[in-house]
Amino acid sequence: MLPKQLAVPGGIVNIKLGSVAIPAPEVLFQGKRVLVLENEHQWYAVVGIPLNTKAGKHAVQVKSEGLNEKRSFNIVDKDYPAQYITIKNKRMVNPNPVDLERISSERPAINKALNTWTEQPVEDILFSIPVQGRLSSPFGLKRFFNNQPKNPHSGLDIAAPTGTAINASAPGLVINTGSYYYNGNTVFLDHGQGLVTGYFHMSKISVKAGQIVEQGTKLGEVGETGRVTGPHLHWNVYLNKTKVDPALFVPELCVKQTEDAQ
User: Is 149 helix (H, G, I), strand (E, B) or coil?
Assistant: First the structure.
């Protein structure tokens, strides 16, 4: 099955490519490989749309058996709401030189995880909710920490008590675990073809790099490590090296977000 399509910055576009009677084509968006999977006997490209994408006409490049063509699609703008957060640890807003050195030293390991590409087939990318809790911050919020503008919210926050189990949202390979300045205790999973999930701010990590996990395998426990205001899971989903809205992969989360907003 396919994730929910939402043709906005931070969303997903599903593009039908043709019958599975022919080999799967290679698809590129903005020069980056795109996940291609089978759905109802058709190949589909599942394209992650960066948050900084401008509204209007865009295209993917499709290559297969001598064919090289573009498939166009339209993106409409979305005005994400603003969120103002007070962080007591001011170094989490304005890191000192030592902090900046640590942050810089952590980037290669994080980037390596996010740049992972494996050619394995991806059969189903409907995920389960990784932790039971309250949806505290949706994806895409314009964020202000101590009234300073920062990067938009890149994932989905689920508030839960410290120690609550965090489970793999889908089968995958643990490609990185670590303790990072902003993310705290972190696990990254590779699900194939550039589909990667990240689980942040854990109090405890229960898996190791190189471990294969099934959907529902315990990855660790909720905590408040890194830049946080309380215990929660920050859950990221990446497609073609792009952060996209995790709720689009979980039908019940789309409903839950609506209920929690009421």
Answer: strand
